[in-house]
Design a protein that fits this description.
The protein is of the alpha/beta class. Helices cover 41% and strands 12% of the residues.
């Protein structure tokens, strides 16, 4: 029997183990729980981290890595997520494309090893079918559009709508545009013409534009050319209204995403949430969510943990196993149950369905 099945049959025990209310566990188990950004595949690529095996907290007590694996995703009750392939900017464009193709093949093959528990999905319909079958619905995304930036036709290497979203730029600038990172160089801070054409091609292919990591100028350059009938994402970020940081979105950016019917995934990295370099508290996550709700409403906030993305998670919620604590804290702070369900996954699924069906 799956650990998830045990929790479904005995939520009272799970509530007791986590030190949370039974109401929170029941609400969590009744929700779609969707995370827009899981980066664990990078540890498989670098160190051979076996995603199909259950791991402990690792050498650093679940800091930077070992926050997620397939068994813990199931046990933790995460019903869907976007698992990302992160681009190595050091390679030349032709190499980046071939490496992406190989990484996509490898990631799909890992999911194929656990067909009873995971299904690779491309839209909300396929996700719901996976969940009805008792499986985790695994979407795939790209972090760093320079994976496929040799030319616009490189985007045709994406097979059968397999990529849900592309984060246009990552921690370094590229042919597409400029990062929000202090590593950015040069006077021009936005998207290049190629980057604008790249956005238009992604719109044609119904691949989400992810505006996490991009410079503020690039953010609005992208929205200027973006198909206004399609929603847009910022999958893993904080907000400057709670904690000013080069990595976080300001209120105008929050409104712009909401105006297009998109959603914002709140990251779990302490440094972006409240300045804690080695942890902090999950209360900071909820405060960032509450600011988005204050500015735009409860339809536009989601989870975007960045688990295993070299982040330092809250010390009271170090791995995916403790995620019901977040729902409990939301309830303690006066959230309505329907707002909790939206933030846990309802908003994410609404936006995916709006673009992909």
């Amino acid at each position: 029997m799956h650990a998830l099945d045990v929790h479904l049959k005995d939520p009272a025990t799970r509530a007791r183990e986590l030190g949370v209310s039974r109401e929170a566990v029941d609400l969590f188990l009744d929700s779609d729980v969707f995370d827009f950004h899981i980066d664990s595949f990078i540890w498989h690529r670098i160190f051979g981290y076996d995603l199909t095996e259950r791991h402990g907290p690792g050498l650093l007590n679940a800091r930077f890595y070992s926050q997620v694996d397939f068994p813990r995703i199931r046990e933790g009750g995460i019903t869907g997520a976007c698992w990302v392939i992160t681009t190595n900017p050091a390679k030349v464009a032709s190499e980046r494309a071939s490496v992406f193709v190989e990484n996509l093949r490898e990631l799909r093959s890992i999911f194929a090893r656990v067909p009873d528990d995971f299904a690779v999905v491309r839209n909300a319909r396929e996700y719901r079918a996976a969940r009805a079958a008792g499986k985790h619905g695994a979407f795939i995304g790209i972090q760093g559009g320079n994976a496929l930036d040799k030319d616009l036709d490189s985007l045709d290497l994406i097979p059968d709508d397999m990529i849900l979203r592309i984060t246009l730029v990552h921690l370094s600038s590229s042919k597409i545009g400029v990062t929000s990172s202090p590593l950015a160089r040069g006077k021009h801070r936005g998207l290049s013409q190629f980057g604008k054409d790249y956005v238009k091609r992604l719109n044609e292919k119904k691949v989400f534009i992810d505006l996490a990591h991009i410079s503020r100028e690039g953010f609005f350059d992208a929205l200027e050319v973006h198909d206004k009938s399609q929603p847009v994402l910022a999958t893993h970020t904080g907000v400057s209204g709670v904690f000013p940081h080069w990595r976080n979105l300001d209120d105008d950016q929050i409104r712009a995403i909401a105006d297009l019917g998109g959603t914002i995934g709140v990251i779990f990295h302490g440094q972006f949430l409240d300045g804690h370099n080695f942890g902090g508290s999950m209360e900071a996550i909820v405060r960032h969510m509450e600011h988005i709700i204050k500015i735009a409403g409860d339809d536009f906030v989601s989870l975007g943990s960045d688990w295993d993305g070299a982040i330092s998670t809250p010390r009271d919620m170090p791995t995916c196993l403790e995620l019901p604590k977040l729902a409990d804290l939301m309830l303690q702070r006066g959230w309505k149950p329907e707002s909790v369900k939206k933030a846990l996954g309802g908003n994410a699924l609404r936006v995916i369905e709006a673009l992909r069906g």
